[in-house]
């Protein structure tokens, strides 16, 4: 398959610049993954499509203020974007401007935070070794900026609107945006229906947004991301599968966690790295239905949702979404693929 097979036309004005208020008042496009039949609803109607005994799987990662501004010894301004923590001092990062930040470059962010570039990465990034006076997380909260995707140019007044209401585990460079539609009240309503809710953690990194540069999608190599599943969550997911109950993923990051951790048909608890790349032809092991946003043209996420249904049905559905003027991407509307 070729990347161009997953293209679609999107008017710029449909790229959402602001989150919907209240969260659950965004629109919801419901699509049957086998027939392509669609319904147009609002997200608060999601309860009409969930069944008692469904298992709803959320990603409880929390976005960190990952963008840091600093200065080289020459006085030149530089930007460091935290992607993945390797250990207590070292991070995989993106740097700007890249040509000025080679191995050995030293950057000062403040009197209490500094770093040195110690290695290159396979994806054009760097490994940065930080030194700091105090608790790193507290310093980062003071100095860092919460990053928004480049297609969102409007300022965000409330930083918590780029966090899910259930975010808990710090570590993501971007939000698992399908979860932005949930309110605590809606989650409680779903629970009261008899739907079981469990939480896994995948820290969203570069892989979600990195463009596919190869012509053939099979040649694309996904960036790795770290996930964690508690023993309690693993038990709940395995039990739901054994009992034949429907497993509904909230977002593509929950999909990637479940499908990576359940490679042998059983979810294993613990933490691990995954670079799983899901595209049509992939046979899902756990996920039967998916709550998700509308994804970028030619993106790995559009390929992932196409694998749950079909490329033809997803592209036809996206065409309808454009015609109906749904809002797209991180702050946009939602889909339920079932």
Order of helices and strands: EEEEEEEEEEHEHEEHEHEEHHE
User: How many structural domains does the protein architecture include?
Assistant: 2
Which segments are poorly predicted (pLDDT under 50) over 5 or more consecutive residues? none
Major sheet description: 9 strands, mixed
Count of helical regions: 6
Computed CA radius of gyration, to the nearest angstrom: 20 Å
Based on the coordinates given, report the CATH architecture of the largest domain. 3-Layer(aba) Sandwich
- What's the helical proportion of residues? 10-25%
Report the β-strand fraction as a percent range: 25-35%
Give the strand tally: 17
Q: For the residues shown, what is the average pLDDT?
A: 94
Structure class: alpha/beta
The CATH superfamily of the largest domain bears the name QueA-like
Enumerate the strands of the largest sheet in spatial order, edge to edge or round the barrel.
Answer: 2-1-17-16-14-3-12-13-15
CATH class value of the largest domain: Alpha Beta
How far apart are the first and last residues' alpha carbons, in Å? 24 Å
Overview of this structure, please?
There is one protein chain. The protein is α/β, with parallel strands linked by helices and 338 residues long. The chain has 2 domains: 3-63 and 157-337, QueA-like; 67-143, QueA-like (Thrombin, subunit H). 18% of the residues lie in helices and 28% in strands. It is built from 6 helices and 17 strands. The chain has helices spanning 136-143, 184-192, 231-242, 252-261, 300-308, 311-323, and strands spanning 27-31, 38-42, 55-59, 61-63, 67-72, 77-85, 90-96, 106-110, 113-120, 126-132, 169-172, 196-202, 225-229, 247-250, 270-274, 289-293, 334-337. It has a 9-stranded mixed beta sheet with strand order 2-1-17-16-14-3-12-13-15, covered by helices on one side. The chain has a 6-stranded antiparallel barrel with strand order 5-6-7-10-9-8. The protein is globular, with a radius of gyration of 20 Å. The chain starts with 26 loop residues before the first strand and ends with a strand.
């Amino acid at each position: 398959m070729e990347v161009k097979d997953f293209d679609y036309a999107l008017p710029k004005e449909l790229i959402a610049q602001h989150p919907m208020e209240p969260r659950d008042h965004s629109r919801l496009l419901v699509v049957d993954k086998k027939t392509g039949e669609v319904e147009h609803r609002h997200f608060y109607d999601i309860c009409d499509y969930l069944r008692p005994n469904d298992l709803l799987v959320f990603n409880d990662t929390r976005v960190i203020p990952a963008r840091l501004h600093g200065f080289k010894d020459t006085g030149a301004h530089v930007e460091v974007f935290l992607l993945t923590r390797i250990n207590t001092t070292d991070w995989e990062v993106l740097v700007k401007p890249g040509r000025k930040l080679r191995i050995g470059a030293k950057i000062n962010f403040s009197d209490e935070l500094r770093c040195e570039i110690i290695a290159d990465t396979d994806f054009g990034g760097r490994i940065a070794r930080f030194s700091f006076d105090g608790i790193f997380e507290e310093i980062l909260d003071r100095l860092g900026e919460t990053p928004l995707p480049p297609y969102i140019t409007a300022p965000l007044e409330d930083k918590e609107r780029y966090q899910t209401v259930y975010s808990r585990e710090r570590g993501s460079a971007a939000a698992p945006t399908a979860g932005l539609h949930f309110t605590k009240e809606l989650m409680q309503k779903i629970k009261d229906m008899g739907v079981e809710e469990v939480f896994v953690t995948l820290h969203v990194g570069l892989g979600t947004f990195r463009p596919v540069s190869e012509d053939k999608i099979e040649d694309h190599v996904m960036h790795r991301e770290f996930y964690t599943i508690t023993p309690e969550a693993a038990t709940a997911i395995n039990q739901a599968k054994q009992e034949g109950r429907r497993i509904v993923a909230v977002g593509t990051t929950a999909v990637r966690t479940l499908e990576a951790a359940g490679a042998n048909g059983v979810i294993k608890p613990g933490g691990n790295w995954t670079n799983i790349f899901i595209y049509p032809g992939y046979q899902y092991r756990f996920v039967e239905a998916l709550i998700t946003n509308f994804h970028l043209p030619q993106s790995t996420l559009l390929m992932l949702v196409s694998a749950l249904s079909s490329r033809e049905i997803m592209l036809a559905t996206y065409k309808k979404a454009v015609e109906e003027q749904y809002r797209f991407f991180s702050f946009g509307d939602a889909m339920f693929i079932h």
